[in-house]
Amino acid sequence: MSGPTITEYLNQAAAPVFVTDPISATFSGPLPAGTNVIGGVTEATMDTRWGNATNIGTGAQGSSKLLAASGDTTVYTPADNTKKIRIRWFQIVASSNNTGPILVTVKFTATILWQFYLAPGAVWQRTAYRNSPNVNDTLVVNMDTSQSAAANYDVDEF
Hints:
Largest sheet: 5 strands, antiparallel
Distance between the termini: 50 Å
Mean pLDDT: 73
Structural class: mainly beta
Number of helices: 2
Helix content: under 10%
CATH superfamily: Nucleoplasmin core domain
CATH topology: Jelly Rolls
Order of helices and strands: HEEHEEEEEEEEE
Number of domains: 1
Oligomer: single chain
């Protein structure tokens, strides 16, 4: 078997990956003012699918957090101790100046959502509604090495 080793593959700059959950919905534009489209599906359709049609709630829209330390970094904490978190969109971008791949784990406090290797300069992104299992869970990113990355996200509290 020939080809790059795992280390060689992970050290290559990767193109952005865009993944959406398939949803059975159709729409034709134009969209109402202020409406976003996620993977070809309107934001309103996503909210309706997840039982949140009338109140998106508070949260962090278009927020970011720089990551540099190994171990857990809290990215988002609900303002109210009676709320859960819903991720609407999440992205991590590794610095092209990193010396090697980073093992990244994204989780709600202790519940792992995603785990992946991120090569220098690579982008990992998900458009997916994911709800925290517990009230007052935090959104945490864990990196196995002290390298540079940025987490960009949209979350709601509900």
